[in-house]
Automatic annotation (TrEMBL):
Belongs to the type-B carboxylesterase/lipase family. The keyword Transmembrane applies. Signal peptide: none annotated. The chain crosses the membrane at residues 43-59. Its EC number is 3.1.1.-. GO terms for molecular function: hydrolase activity. SUPFAM superfamilies: alpha/beta-Hydrolases (SSF53474). It comes from Passalora fulva. Pfam families: COesterase. Keywords: Hydrolase, Membrane, Transmembrane, Transmembrane helix. InterPro entries: AB_hydrolase_fold (IPR029058), CarbesteraseB (IPR002018), Carboxylesterase_B_AS (IPR019826), Type-B_Carboxylest/Lipase (IPR050309). PROSITE patterns: CARBOXYLESTERASE_B_1. This is Carboxylic ester hydrolase.
Length: 622
């Protein structure tokens, strides 16, 4: 039982806290865009100070409480804490000068048991209930794959199969708001063979939003560990494990996000490249009757990007057999193969999946990709669009002007090499298809009027005469035209709104407006904002459009920080117009042209070429 002095101390602390809260932070009726300054309410401040003096002079038992109230310890911001069925998690505060509002984070929370041992090459298992307390202050290790970024002494850039974790970010203090906040779930890129949650600065994207939301990023299995596709894994029900990881994460959000202040009925899924392809597959997943998401931001990708093969295609069987041989499991049959693969050392499995990927990388016939599985991907994506049966949600989607520069061989010199590249990539083209391809993409060596004539010193740049031609054709095939296809199908018949963009900022001498460039602007990275005032404006506009869509479903509702001026972004159904970002700007590539930050225009770029690619996508390869 408390003694009198203890009760007085507790009462004094409560009174002091209440007094100061009433004077400086009125209860918000909606999420605040920034903290209210104490000095903006001087009357309340001085009345609160007077109350403290009265307590101190006339109530001796309050002396200690008043003194401790003003110590640094009493004002220290405690670590954020959240209680879930799987345990209690203690988060951290992010210290980043680029954040205009402070952000708190819960890092490295597991959403599934480690997929190791007998759980390797199997569907992930949800976390059990627990009463333990766990630190959530550091990113987990990333999933094994063909990871490109390695920095010695950076633990979270190492890899481990125990990698199925998530990270949650929120404005500091946002949990106290009276309404649940919208939720963003970000799915990382990486060709389904590399990448990890922390490669996207989701916290910075959130910090620059005009209004708060709850942001989440996560790891999922990649490479053969996530997409070991073959007749055997089809028979065992083990296809597309990486996509199933993503679905399990979305289920976790439905069960747990309210504990962080989020609204499970207002979830936006967003992603670039492989993340965007993934979103396309989840939108097409008619076998999922639950509503796991409500809006989608699909950047440089689509369900129809590249070919989505049956699990037993010749290509996948060849890749599977080579992988099994590399691991050392040849000569075994059926379930014995899986048993052998599960017992192999992790480094052997990782090396084997990388070896097979590298063999097929030059042809861009990548290993370890999503396949038709009669589950999440129950049919060819194009057939799904034509059926009219998919999850109809508002969509923001877009493509970059030079999507192919990252992937095609740079020293393509002759027209025969151009033809050979596409004949290998798409055998179903045939002679007639290759002839039409040559008409749509004129040979710069034969036609002076070809848009792919390059007058620069190609030797100094290290590129061949056919490089611009092959990167344009591949970029259209793999990214631009599938994105346009998404916009066309999803906006037909007065479906939920679709907003289409075209990223045209020339950021590099060779790369141009390269695949993934927009992410630096979306997250308000100083690396691009400091290039010039125009680049800063482009970043602010793009971030405000995207975060407004996340919060409200409309890119125009929120104006962004500092209430920047920007054109209205209309629906794609309004005349099939596109928001073009940075047209004519080449400052980052060493030029002096400012161009236009953004404008909503009739954009027919690549329309004719896309008609060809759409026609060819009608013909399945296997």
């Amino acid at each position: 039982m408390l003694n009198v002095d203890a009760r007085w101390t507790r009462s004094c602390k409560a009174a002091l806290t209440t007094s100061m809260e009433k004077g400086s932070n009125p209860v918000a009726t909606k999420p605040l865009t920034r903290p209210t300054r104490l000095a903006s309410k001087p009357v309340f401040f001085f009345s609160s100070l007077l109350a403290l003096l009265i307590f101190y002079n006339f109530v001796p038992q309050c002396h200690h409480a008043v003194q401790s109230f003003f110590t640094l310890e009493s004002w220290a911001d405690p670590s954020p804490r959240v209680e879930l069925k799987q345990g209690t998690f203690i988060g951290t505060h992010l210290d980043n000068e680029n954040h205009p509002v402070p952000v708190e984070a819960f890092l490295g929370i597991a959403y599934a048991l480690p997929p190791t041992g007998e759980r390797r090459f199997a569907r992930a298992v949800p976390m059990p209930e627990s009463r333990e307390v766990f630190p959530a202050t550091d990113y987990s290790l990333r999933c094994p794959g063909k990871q490109l970024l390695r920095i010695p002494g950076t633990p979270w850039l190492e890899s481990s199969e125990d990698c199925l974790t998530l990270n949650i970010f929120r404005w500091r203090g946002s949990f106290s708001y009276q309404k649940k906040l919208p939720v963003l779930v970000y799915i990382h890129r990486g060709a389904f063979n590399r990448g990890f949650a922390a490669m996207h600065d989701t916290a910075s994207m959130l910090a620059w939003s005009e209004e708060p939301f709850i942001a989440l990023s996560f790891n999922y299995r990649i490479g053969a560990l996530g997409f070991l596709n073959s007749q055997l894994t089809e028979k065992e029900g083990l296809l597309n494990l990486g996509l199933h990881d993503q679905k399990l994460l979305l289920e976790w959000v439905q069960d747990n996000i309210e504990a962080f202040g989020g609204d499970p009925n207002d979830v936006t899924i967003a992603g670039l490249s492989a993340g965007a392809h993934s979103i396309g597959h989840h939108i097409m997943d008619v076998n999922e009757e639950r509503t796991l998401f409500h809006k989608a931001v699909i950047e440089s990708g689509a369900a129809t990007s590249r070919a989505v093969h049956p699990a037993n295609s010749k290509l996948h069987e060849m890749q599977f057999e080579k992988f099994v041989a590399q691991v050392g499991c040849s000569g075994k049959k059926g379930s014995e193969i899986l048993s052998c693969l599960r017992q192999a050392p992790s480094e052997v499995v990782t090396a084997a999946q990388t070896t097979v990927f590298d063999e097929y990388n030059p042809s861009v016939r990548w290993a370890w990709q999503p396949v038709i599985d009669d589950d999440i991907v129950s049919r060819r994506p194009l057939d799904a669009w034509k059926s009219g049966k998919w999850h109809k949600v508002p969509i923001m989607t877009g493509f970059n002007h030079n999507e192919g520069t990252m992937y095609v061989p740079k020293k393509v010199q002759k027209s025969d090499e151009f033809n050979s590249f596409f004949a290998t990539l798409l055998p179903q083209l045939g002679k007639a298809g290759l002839k039409k391809l040559a008409e749509l993409y004129p040979d710069p060596a034969k036609a002076e009027s070809s848009p792919y004539v390059d007058t620069r010193n190609l030797t100094d740049l290290g590129i061949g005469e056919q490089y611009k031609r092959v990167e344009a054709a591949y970029g259209h095939y793999a990214y631009v035209c599938p994105v346009r296809q998404t916009a066309d199908f999803a906006s037909a018949g007065q479906e939920p709104p679709v907003f289409l963009y075209h990223w045209a900022v020339n950021k590099a001498v060779i790369g141009g407006a390269n695949h993934g460039d927009q992410i630096w602007y979306e997250t308000m990275s100083p690396l691009v904002r400091n290039v010039s005032p125009t680049h800063d404006e482009i970043a602010r506009r793009f971030n405000s459009y995207v975060t407004s869509f996340i919060v409200t479903g409309d890119p125009n509702t929120l104006q962004g920080r500092k209430a920047i001026s920007r054109p209205r972004w209309g629906k794609f159904s309004e005349g099939k117009k596109t928001m073009v970002f940075g047209a004519g700007n080449d400052e980052a590539a060493g030029g002096s042209q400012v161009g236009v930050a953004s404008e909503w225009v009739d954009d027919e770029w690549a329309r004719e070429e896309c008609k060809f690619w759409w026609e060819k996508s009608e013909v399945p390869e296997d």
